[in-house]
Amino acid sequence: MAGARREGADAYQRALGLLVRREHSRRDLARKLAQRGVEPAEAAAAVERLAGQGYQDDQRFAESFARDRTSAGYGPVRIRVELAGHGLSEDAIAGALAACEADWAALARRQVERRWRPAELADPARRRKAVEFLLRRGFDQGDAWSAVRASPDEDGDL
To answer: Domain 59-100 has what CATH class?
Structure first.
């Protein structure tokens, strides 16, 4: 019995050590504990205990992750897919994207401005490449096409 209690404490300490470094979703935390040889039941108990104590919070993880990805220039489509990959609910994902309060169209324009000069975007092939780039970054088609069509002459805020 003492060995089981020790293993449970070890799982808790390992999970806490992971959370000290950065936020993790419940699913990621349980997966990382399993990779370190922790039994699934012990991992689940440790994650549940940490969540109960407020050390692990899927919504906080989702908001932090979404803010980081937004500041790195990624769009909502990609962020949504990545958050779903972390095992988060649709409600948590929607809440995280709403908490970003990002202007996705402006972010897409900034990404284009960083990589292409307006004269380059006059070429249809380059415009297509720019749109494809934005789509890979997770912007929707409307924002992507608007970003490559926008120019300082057309839109005074660029």
So the answer is: mainly alpha
pTM for the model: 0.83
Average pLDDT over every residue of 64-70: 96
Q: Distance between terminal CA atoms of the chain? A: 67
User: Dihedrals φ, ψ of 111, to 5°?
Assistant: -65, -40
- Split at pLDDT 50, 70, 90, the class of 2 is very low
Within 8 A by CB and 6+ apart from 91, the residues are none
Domain 104-149 class in CATH: mainly alpha
Question: 38-70: b or e for each residue (b if 16 or more CB lie within 10 Å)?
Answer: beeebbbbbbebbeeeebbbbeebbbebbbebb
For residue 77, CA distances in Å to 71, 98, 109, 147 come to: 15, 13, 16, 16
Q: What is the mean pLDDT of the chain?
A: 90
Mean pLDDT lowest among 9-13, 70-74, 130-134, 144-148: 9-13
Domain range 2-56, CATH architecture: Orthogonal Bundle (1.10)
